């Protein structure tokens, strides 16, 4: 360890722990199925993350299966599962991850008096005892890589927090995580907490100190960086800043801050920054969470210069107004890749270039979809291809699929729609009349499927620029008091709307099949 002017661990690499598939998946409106999670996990390896938190296996059978599949298939990163300090959670977590190349159990207990009194109804002594017993159990199953989190650490009494941390280290924890669970702390206060912990718990020097910051006050990245400057060696992040409520520290922000300001931070990371844009697009497309235009690093406007003075400066000398290059995060100036005369082979090699490897039936299906688009659209870009393949992956496990739809709409008529939805066994027809074309499509789908969803959110955006751009639609639907998201792309936004709605109903079917709602949250 090196310490200079209050800073610790200068020069030590930072472990990037990605929790997109666990905390990120807890964002309201997310719902990834097992193949989508696998796809994201493979991309996270290409991005160079060190640890993938793949899920919370005890929360639902669906989560267990997804974590298990990732543990078996994804190589090149530590695969971690979350577990409460409860014996059955820890054993279930171990069963899900034990086949991983490098497995990690991540167990947690709350340490703040607010949580102890109102949520856990346990005394401090009981929490200390539980920490010792459960960390010992987890360490006996997964020796050598065990993470312990003190939930709500930033609102905990620091002396009690230090005792819990010391107990966890003595019981076998190799990483200690200090979460700002409710996004309450501020950078200088958090840095002081990290300093205090290093002073009060000398054995912290022998393990990895991690931080996990939520963005309720908009300072998750700043808090993470403050902790890094004071010695944290692992940072927990999520792609596009997804996560509970206002989300987690954004992977792309923490990584680019460490890389761009390496002069100050002096903490290397393994992130392949040129994979950032692609990962962001994939996560946005699969989770259905669109990225706001002015989002740092990955927003549509993050590298756009609107004012004349800025444009003039950038044209003369890029560094006048740019601190990073778009190409550093993998954005290319022109990403036109294919046209309608391109063949199957060209599609296959372009997909491989963007890290998507398809063969056999999957390639045939991607090619069929590509041809449909290329017939209607002059140039098919990398972003279009990613959106199309993302859609194919999403549809693989679907129970319902939209086979055809017709809409009649206009200024002086009542809109009417007819749809046909396949339910694996047989086609079901549905029809409806109503005020708007989108509403009539959704009602016709309800009629065909026999499920009635209440529309809670509806968003449309274009994948690229141009009138012939693919349109992406995201819906959130409430069924039986629970919310389900669906998302789809098409050159026709009415078709994308219909498919997105059908996808949401597929998520209803999947949730029912997977044994109902997750225990930790409303199933989304
Ligand atoms: O925010 C939090 O405290 C968490 C823990 C489970 C690490 O997500
Ligand atoms: Zn969290």
Overview of the molecule:
With 524 residues, the chain is α/β, with parallel strands linked by helices. It has three domains: 14-287, Aldolase class I (TIM Barrel, Alpha-Beta Barrel); 336-395, no CATH class; 401-513, 2-Layer Sandwich (Double Stranded RNA Binding Domain), CATH 3.30.160. The protein is built from 17 helices and 18 strands. The strands form five sheets. An eight-stranded parallel β-barrel has the order 3-4-5-6-7-8-9-10, surrounded by eight helices. A three-stranded antiparallel sheet has the order 13-14-15, with helices on one face. A three-stranded antiparallel sheet has the order 16-17-18. Strand 13 and strand 14 form a beta hairpin. The chain is globular. The two termini are 44 Å apart. Mean pLDDT is 89; it is low at 516-524. The structure holds 3-methyl-2-oxobutanoic acid and zinc ion. Zinc ion binds at residues 23, 179, 181, 212, 214, 243-244. 3-methyl-2-oxobutanoic acid (KIV) is lined by residues 23, 82, 108, 149, 151, 177, 179, 181, 212, 214.
